Amino acid sequence: MARLLLAEDEEALRMLIVDTLEEEGHVMDVACDGEEALRKISVNRYDLIILDHMMPKLTGLEVIERLRSMPEHASSRVLMLSAKNQQTEQNHVMDAGADAFMSKPFSPLALIGKVEELLNA
Asked: Where is each Response regulatory domain found (predicted)?
């Protein structure tokens, strides 16, 4: 069982991801925007942080940049979700410090596989 943070502004997708990963036994915290994600990160430890690329207030990239500047969270694992699936965008996300990238839409099974891969890395 791992503790995960999901930052996703689309409610339906947020609920699907939470339900999927809780069924796998993970403890889920959620944030609806980048600022809320950073507030939760500042007071909690997460085994994996799942960020939507395009969110209100702070984007997923901005969250990663701030996360990587916090010594206590600099090595946190991050999975970025994005509808922007061009290779240049994926490279930009990975260069910013994400550990993995998944294009939307994705299957719940693909998400489970990627989360387990990152948790076991």
From this structure: 3-119
